[in-house]
Amino acid sequence: xxxxNRLKKxxxxxxxxxxxxxxxxxxxxxxxxxPKHEYLKTSYQEKDLNLKKIDFIPxxxxxxxxxxxxxxxxxxMTSIFVFLLLxxxxx
Length: 91
Prior knowledge:
By secondary structure, this protein is an all-alpha fold.
């Protein structure tokens, strides 16, 4: 529900919303807002969260940035997206 409400402000485009999140929070991301997973192994969401899979095609530059963030923070791209979504919900 939270994601659907946020998408309404971005023409119901997940690609546009991801660009918005990365642009809006880039400074905070670079300054350590996302906690780095302590192990070299990639961290994923906890099990049994009843998550829904949503397929979309992000902009190439956003995809590349998310891949870099994934490697740097040792977190899945989905986990990073959800973190940014929750941060955005705080306004």
